[in-house]
Specification:
Elements (H helix, E strand, L loop, with lengths): L9 E12 L20 E10 L5 E3 L5 H7 L2 E2 L3 H7 L9 E3 L18 E5 H7 L7 H4 L4 H12 L3 E4 L3 E4 L2 E5 L8 E7 L2 E7 L5 H5 L10 H14 L7 E3 L4 H5 L2 E2 L2 E3 L8 H5 L1
Parallel strand pairs: 3-5, 5-6, 6-7, 11-12
Antiparallel strand pairs: 1-2, 1-4, 1-14, 2-3, 8-9, 9-10, 10-11, 13-14
Bound molecules: zinc ion (2 copies).
One zinc ion binds next to loops.
Length: about 280
Amino acid sequence: MDSRTNPAPVTQIQAIRYARHERRAQDNFIAPVDDHDVPMPLDYYVWAIHRDGEAPVVVDTGFGELAAMARGRTITRPLVQGLRDAGVDPLLVEHVILTHLHYDHAGSLDLFPNAHFHVQESEMAFATGRHMCDRHVRAPFDGEPVAELVKRLYADRVVFHEGDAEFAPGISLRLAPGHTAGLQVVVCQTARGAVVLASDAAHLYANLTRQVPFPIFVDETFYHIAQQRVLNIAGGSLDHVIPGHDPLVLACFPGTNDIARVDLAPHTPIAEALA
Ligand SMILES: [Zn+2]
Ligand SMILES: [Zn+2]
């Protein structure tokens, strides 16, 4: 498709919330924070990217009931129901982008039997190699879904990307490591400009504005660079960044039923909501 004839190939992006975890601010930042004891919950999302005449592209695959019970998370709506409520039939999804392979982003692969899974080569190598011998490094990964992805690899269902890549008209991948070895963010060209699905390059808007990343990382310096890269791609606009776990996404963007339309401008500017 010629971008000159269609300046906004991405017509709709939905952030679909499926789970929640109550926690305190001190749990969400590497460094001490003044408001350490205030509640600062995390929401869990997957994202659906829509273009005219194409099957939706799903970003990340969430987790299911077993992982929720094992880790004390609350499923607010089963992922498959959230997708259907968003008008996405998982059986028809042809392409799934995995931003990284933590348990909350790469479970539930079986919901998408007809999809190809797009992952960074460095992420797969990290999640299947010697680093997983360290139980602290391993903790945010679950073996089962990683093994499921390896099975998909042997069935020609995995597509590797090495660094930045053009995924499809209006959708590109940008490498943003630090939180994990091969985290990729997804940049979508919409009618309001580039919108960055940042995933865990920024769990919360406050991780960006305070310039203090979330306390799970493989390289803190790269994590800072990744956060800056996300902001740069968004032209410095918080309204154009969609963090991986921020309840403000549901609070500030238009939408209903725990599904936010993040291709549209927020009805409350993020900077105002944070103030
Ligand atoms: Zn993560
Ligand atoms: Zn996450």
